[in-house]
């Protein structure tokens, strides 16, 4: 059974950095794209970034382009989200999810994202 577990959240000041990790188990990572999503209080969940199954293609929401970097290590079955120059608007619970998609570029708007993790809280505040 495909399972994803997020970690790495915390409290950081504006302009600071965090690296989120998503540990995957129960599936062959070469066949799945992995995405990061976030949900702020009172708001809908939105896509942040995703990476294709072999890491060739990456997609970013406009709000995080140039600040966030997604990467993956299929041997370790890990996906990372490096977040730099954090802003208060980045405060949210961050989730990772998977989609069966072999080598193709991923679409954050797809309704097929699944196997959601439990989330990790990121709070950006002075």
Report on this model:
With 126 residues, the chain is mostly beta strands. It is built from no helices and 10 strands. A 6-stranded mixed β-sheet has the order 2-10-9-4-5-6, with no helix packed on it. Strands 1-3-8-7 form a 4-stranded antiparallel β-sheet, with no helix packed on it. A hairpin with a 6-residue loop joins strand 4 and strand 5. The protein starts with a strand and ends with a strand. The model has no long low-confidence stretch (mean pLDDT 96).
Tell me briefly what this model is.
The chain has about 130 residues and is mainly β. It contains no helices and 10 strands.
Helix content: under 10%
Main sheet?
Answer: 6 strands, mixed
Shape: globular
Strand order of the largest sheet: 2-10-9-4-5-6
Unreliable runs, pLDDT <50, ≥5 residues? none
SSE string: EEEEEEEEEE
Mean pLDDT over the full residue set: 96
Alpha-carbon distance between the two ends? 40 Å
By secondary-structure content and strand pairing, the structural class works out as mainly beta
Radius of gyration, in Å, reads 13 Å
Give me the number of helical elements.
0
Question: Would you spell out the secondary-structure blueprint of this structure?
Answer:
Blueprint: E1 3-7, E2 10-12, E3 18-25, E4 32-39, E5 46-51, E6 58-60, E7 68-73, E8 78-83, E9 92-100, E10 120-124
Parallel strand pairs: 2-10
Antiparallel strand pairs: 1-3, 3-8, 4-5, 4-9, 5-6, 7-8, 9-10
């Amino acid at each position: 059974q495909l399972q994803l577990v997020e970690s790495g959240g915390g409290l950081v000041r504006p302009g600071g950095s965090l690296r989120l990790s998503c540990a995957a188990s129960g599936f062959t990572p070469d066949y799945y794209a992995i995405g990061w999503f976030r949900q702020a209080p009172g708001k809908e969940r939105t896509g942040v970034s995703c990476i294709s199954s072999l890491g060739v293609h990456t997609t970013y929401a406009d709000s995080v382009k140039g600040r966030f970097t997604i990467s993956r290590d299929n041997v370790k079955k890990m996906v990372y989200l490096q977040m730099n120059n954090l802003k208060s608007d980045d405060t949210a619970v961050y989730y990772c999810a998977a989609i069966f998609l072999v080598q193709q570029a991923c679409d954050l708007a797809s309704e097929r994202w699944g196997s959601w993790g439990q989330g990790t809280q990121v709070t950006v505040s002075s």
